[in-house]
């Protein structure tokens, strides 16, 4: 895991998406500090375009799980499942959502304007990556998920976001139980090239 003395480059290259966390509670002071610092992401609008909802109490996490499961029912995720498989999946989801110390939903403002919406999503993605890096610096594991429920208008409403906001992802935080190995990255020559002067 990351140490406070690491350089920014080492922090970026050592970070991992942590899907298996301990259920040890996280200090909310640390989460608030991470969010405050992450908000220094670049943005194009006059006001930062992101909004965050936190689920960390037992009641909040149970509600979050139930809304996710209801969303999956609503959008037909379980249509081909047997009752037995559906119950197993439901219990697995329940254990994950209720066992994860902190879950965060991050939404971005919607302007119904191509350029502004593009910039809004881009800024919010930068904010999310800041959160992940700041978590890693504090030895907190994070995974950024874009599961089907974040696109469900009813789920968005149940989470307290407005019709002028859309969810960019959910972040699930906790002290790592298992840290995955680094994924191999493409070599620079596979995706970097010079501008072709005079290209038609």
UniProtKB/TrEMBL annotation:
Nitroreductase domain mapped to chain residues: 12-175
Domain of life: Bacteria
Keyword rRNA-binding included in the entry's annotation: no
Gene3D superfamilies: NADH Oxidase
Pfam families assigned to the protein according to its UniProt record, in alphabetical order: Nitroreductase (PF00881)
GO MF term (any one): oxidoreductase activity
Keyword annotations from UniProtKB, A to Z: Flavoprotein, FMN, NAD, NADP, Oxidoreductase
InterPro entries: NAD(P)H_nitroreductase, Nitroreductase, Nitroreductase-like, YdjA-like
Obligatory cofactor(s): FMN
Similarity comment: Belongs to the nitroreductase family.
The protein, known as: NAD(P)H nitroreductase
């Amino acid at each position: 895991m990351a140490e406070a003395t690491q350089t920014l480059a080492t922090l970026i290259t050592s970070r991992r998406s942590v899907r298996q966390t301990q259920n040890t509670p996280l200090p909310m002071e640390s989460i608030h500090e991470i969010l405050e610092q992450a908000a220094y992401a670049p943005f194009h609008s006059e006001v930062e375009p992101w909004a965050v909802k936190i689920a960390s109490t037992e009641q909040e996490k149970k509600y979050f799980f139930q809304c996710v499961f209801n969303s999956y029912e609503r959008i037909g995720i379980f249509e081909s499942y047997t009752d037995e498989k559906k119950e197993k999946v439901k219990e697995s989801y329940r254990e994950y959502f209720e066992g994860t110390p902190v879950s965060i939903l991050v939404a971005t403002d919607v302007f119904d304007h191509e350029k502004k919406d593009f910039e809004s999503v881009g800024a919010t993605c930068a904010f999310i990556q800041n959160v992940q890096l700041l978590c890693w610096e504090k030895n907190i594991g994070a995974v950024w998920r874009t599961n089907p429920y974040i696109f469900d208008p009813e789920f968005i409403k149940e989470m307290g976001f407005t019709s002028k906001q859309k969810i960019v992802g959910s972040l699930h935080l906790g002290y790592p139980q298992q840290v995955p190995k680094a994924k191999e990255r493409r070599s620079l020559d596979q995706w970097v090239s010079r501008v072709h002067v005079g290209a038609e």
